[in-house]
Amino acid sequence: MRDDRTGEFGSGASALRAIAVDEVQPMSGRADAVLWERVKTRLRTELGEDVFSSWFARVEFEGADGASVNLSVPTRFLKSWIQAHYFDKLLGLWTAEVDSVRRVELIVRGAVRARAPAKVDKPAVASVAANPTPTFIPAASAAPVLMQASPARIEADGAGSPVDPRFTFETFCEGGANRVAYAAARAVAETPAGRPTPYNPLYLHAGVGRGKTHLLHAVAQAARRADPSRKVVYLTAEHFMFRFVAALKNQSAIAFKENLRDIDLLLIDDLQFLQGKSVQQEFCHMLNALIDGARQVVVAADRPAAELETLDERVRSRLRGGVAFEIGSPDLDLRRDILKSRYAIAQSQNPGVDVPETVIEYVAQSVVSNGRDLEGALNRLVAQWQFTNQPVTMNSAEITLRDLVGASEPRRVKIEDIQKVVSRHYNVSKADLLSSRRTRTIVRPRQIAMYLSKTLTPRSLPEIGRRFGGRDHTTVLHAVRKVEEMMQGDQHLKEEIELLKRMIDE
Description:
Helix content: 40-55%
Radius of gyration: 25 Å
Number of domains: 4
Structural class: alpha/beta
C-alpha cells in the first residue's frame, strides 16, 4: 500500500509504500554496495542505456539500515524527476533484492552535506571548529571540501549556475601547461560585449583537476567587473539539460530559449554530460544563434570535441569551427607554484602552521596527476599539523601521502587513452576506429587498439567490444589473436606495438 501522508519524496502521488517493518539487522556496507550495483544493472537493463545515463548515472549510494535505503542525487530537479517517474520501480527493485527494505530516501548531496557542520554541537568538536584547520579550500579546484560549508556563491543573472567567487584569474596559477588557455580566457573576458573575438567559440578541454572550471568562473567574474551591464551566464551541461526538460514539462520552453539567446557571454561546463537528442538539438540551435549574433561562447569538457561520441555531430562541428586549447598536466614548476599559493592561503587561515620547504618540494615532485591532488595533499599535511600537534616531517608526510604519491601505484591505462594514441599514430580518427568501415587502413589500427586494450587494461572482451562501437566479444577475441599471430612473424610490427605501449604509458 502507499503512504500518501508522509510526502517523503515531495507530492503524495509519488510517496513511498508503507509496509509493516519487521525487526531487521543493518546490512553490511560492502553488501550494500554490491546490492546497489545489482539494482543499477537491472535499471539499465529494464530502462535502456539512454534513460539510465540521463537519470541514474549520477545517483550515489549513501547507506542503508536494513529497512531503509538512502540514495543521493546532485540536484533537486533530478530528485523530483526520479520521484515522479521512476520511484515505484526503484523501490520495487530494492525490495526484490532485500525483502526487508520498506523505504528508499533520496537526498540532494549539496544541500545535505553543506548543512552537516551546523549539526555538530558536541563540545569536543566545537573546540576544533573554533580553530579550523582544513578550512581553506584551494582556489584551483572546483571540488568541495566537506570539512566546511562552501562560501557564498554568486548567482548568474538568475538563469545560470552559481559562480564561485574564489575562482578568479588572480587565484589561478599560470604555467606552461595552461598558459595559452589562460591567455585566451582573459582575452575573452576583457573583450567588450558585441565586439567579435577570434576565439568564438572558445573550447577548453582537460582531464579532471586541471583548472578548466576555474577558468570559466574567472571569465564570468572578470567580464561582469569589466562591464556590469553585460549579461553573463555560466551553466553546467547538466543544469542546462535539467532546466530545458523542466521548461518543456512546464510548457515554458519558448521563454527559456529566448532568455538564453539574449545573453552576451555564455559559459558551458562539463559538456560531456549533455544527454538527450532533443536537448542537444536545442543546444545546437542556441549555439548557432549566439555565435551568429556575435555573442561569445566558452565551452569546457574533459576531452576534445571530436571525441565526444555521444554528442550530436552538428554540435561537434560547430565547436571544431572555433578555437580549442588543451590544458595539460602541470609540470614541476607549475606544481611548485600551486603548492606555494595554497600554502600561503593555509598560513593566513591557520597562523603557526609549518610545512617545511623540503616537504613542499617532495609533494611537488611526487604528486604529479593534477592540481586537485596537490591541494588535497597539502590539506592533509595541514590537518596532520592541526590535529596531532606534531611538526610535519618528511617521514610523516610520506606516511600521510602514500596513496597520492605517483610512484606508489602505476597509472591505470584507460581504453580512451589507447584509442587516442593509436588514432594519432596511424593518422586515423577515433570515429574511424569505432565505425563499421572495413578498409585496411582502418581495420589494422582497430585490431591493434583492441589488442592493446586487452593486454593493458583489466576490461573484459564484451566491455572492450562495447567501447569499440558496440562490437561483439568474438570480434575482439579475433582481433587479439590476429595481432598476436602477426607479431610472431613481423618484427617491425612487434617493435611498433612496443612503441605504442611506451606512448600510452607516458
